[in-house]
Design goal:
Blueprint (H helix, E strand, L loop, with lengths): L11 H6 L7 H6 L2 E7 L6 H11 L8 H8 L8 H5 L2 H4 L6 H17 L2 E8 L11 H18 L3 E9 L4 H13 L5 E7 L11 H9 L3 E6 L5 H10 L3 E4 L7 H9 L4 E3 L1 H6 L11 H6 L4 E3 L4 H4 L3 H12 L3 H13 L5 H21 L5 H5 L1 H8 L3 H7 L22 H6 L2 E7 L6 H11 L3 H4 L12 H8 L6 H13 L4 H17 L2 E8 L11 H16 L5 E9 L5 H13 L5 E7 L13 H9 L4 E5 L5 H10 L3 E4 L7 H9 L4 E3 L3 H6 L8 H7 L4 E3 L11 H12 L3 H13 L5 H21 L11
Parallel strand pairs: 1-2, 2-3, 3-4, 4-5, 5-6, 6-7, 7-8, 9-10, 10-11, 11-12, 12-13, 13-14, 14-15, 15-16
Amino acid sequence: MIEIENNEPVNLTATTASKGSFLPLDILRKLPKAELHQHLDGSINVSTIIELAKEQNIELPSYDPEVLSTYVLKDKDCNGLVHFLEAFSITLKVMQKPYAITRVFYEVCENLVKDGVSYVEIRFSPILHVEQGLSLSEVMNAVCDGLALAEFKLPIKARIIVCGLRHLSPNVTKDLAEIAWRYRHKGVAGFDLAGPEDGFSSKYHKQAFDIVRDKALNCTIHSGEDSNYMSVFDSIICGAHRIGHGIAVQQNQDLLNHMINRRIPIECCLTSNLQIKALKHYKDHPIRKYFDQNAIVTLCCDNPTMSNITLSGEFSVAIENFDFNIEEVLRLIDYSFASAFIEAPMKSTLRKEAVIKSIRIFKEHGYDLDPIVKNKNYYFHETGIDIIHELSVIEKINSQFTLGKCLSPIHSPVTMEFLKAMPKADLQSRFDGSVSLSTCWNELQLIKDDKDFKKLFPINIDTFTSFDKFRETIQNPNHSTGSIALSKDIMNALLQNEGQLERGFDDIIKTAIDDNVKYIEIAFRPTSHTKINLTKEQVLNIIIEKKNEWENTGKIKIGLILFSSSVSDDPIECLSNAKVAIQNKSNGIVGFGIFGTETISPSEIKHFSQTFDLLKRHHFNLVQNSGTSDIGSLVSTIHQAGAARLSGAFQLHKYPRLMSYVGNYRIPVEISLTKKLKSFTKDLSFTTPIRHLLDNNVPVIICSFRSSLYSFGRTEMLYEIVKNAQLDLEHVVRLFKNPFSFNFQNLQERTKLVNLFNETSIQVLQNHKITSQNLIIN
């Protein structure tokens, strides 16, 4: 970058572009910002290149800053990517010594602080700094020293992303992934794959991404910059949590929808893309299209030295060319912090601080904050900040210490009456385990003389001489594995003909409505109901018809999850069921599940790869039972199967780093107060696994599962959880809200459900004379 007398970088592009911006550069520089896509070797000061070259006796085209700038800066006459990349031969030449690497990292952070950046992830490829004999470890130590120095001396949080290179041997990329893992405790936050896309698919670097997935590393991949949308798709399959550039995502709406629903951010580098001729004009960039469809987009510089830009300048470019208003600018700022590869507690603090500081700056400069107030739900849902409350105290107290929290803590007791009145969502109600005992008993009376039906039962049903005898078996207070299996078989045998399926479905929904459930996902396995004369197709049609019938009443919204058994269904049957689920997406099948008494182990998961590949190709939701008795199945379920939700996950609390990862990426965990939970988490004597997960930011989803096995209902179960986990009102509201936020509907429908929860909950709180401030807003 060119520097002026006070050592501030001059952003020529932004200076020109900012003429139409309602936010001048001096204000944009004051706003807190996060930079997530910036290359170390593309961020060095021109003056530093000259100084390092003289110190190391390195020959340059010129030692005059203005002349050298014509070789390094590409903001005026760049004719494409090849021309753009020529500058790196100069910058990398002076970055082959440890002290030089340390200095450049520190100075990059120094420049960013001057531009108002408070969090940065600087990416680089260590393999490009070994030309003079440094080992990869020596390179890493040098860059980590620069990070430590920057965080010690400057008001900035910095992290490192290690880059693999597509055109190099997969063995080299594997080594770089391993070194990213080894240096995770010294500031390395993630792994990246950069370089030419065409001819060098992400999939070729399987070994590297196996490490990334197995070690739960954060991952961003350059994709869709100089290739088509399939490059982006391949990168997501490889495990990318963010996509660098992503221009080509616009070519495929299904892919964009998937990224929106899964909240996969796109790192947008406007000026860089323009200069390498990926765009003809700024307005050709799809950032506005992505943003308007609720995709998470972040503004980034890529290579600020070559592009001669700053992040504030990129905001100015975005405002002028895409008409972002003041609230949208604030959301862009928040999107960047929200997408950071940093631990969840720090990310939460950075987000809150950025929003509050930005609002203060806008207010001090007289900007109309009404657009921000109108979108107050977003900021409360995402950051916990009540915008109206914040504006009311902004001039009374130093609100940087409140971080959006209410000044008066809430001490209202959580009662059974309150829990019953609260709106609920249930994301796994197992069809053949949720029909009430009274309905099951009635069905038993109807078929007790039918010889064909009686053959289905594992015991002589004539022993059930009364309802109490029947209940003693199904809801055995001392349930064992064997007694639970017996109860499941009995309940399943009572759901084998059309009438039984219809009455069973009606019973489940009526009970849910009585429990104040507004949304429910019913999991069913068609094969389980074909033991008399129904086909899988007939079972499917009956369930879909009943779902539509109940939704038409307007009393409840229903999603269906078709599942396979990890015990009874082989990989071929599992694939067949997945195909049926996908084919019926438009009929209300919102996801596919794999459940069973046994999890699919990491060594066996490869046998189901066709099923998982099919689900990924169709961007179809998967929920899978995992982590019941081992941690390995959790990792493989997340990264190889691609599950969007985990069911069970009883061992997650034993591995803090994986628990932090699950919390950071908001991967929901379905759980309930069952015998299995108590058995597999008995090591937690002080607290419960539910509280442990909540305290670590994991989205806990309380489900009813096979509720017929237990004598308590939804409200009683929730009350027991509240007591055992010692949850306060804030925890309880979050617990109730989670299933509204993390169900398998698309983002638009989820937003409607969250709004419904907000509206209904506020009324419940008011009825119980509890202030909703800092709990929920509408």
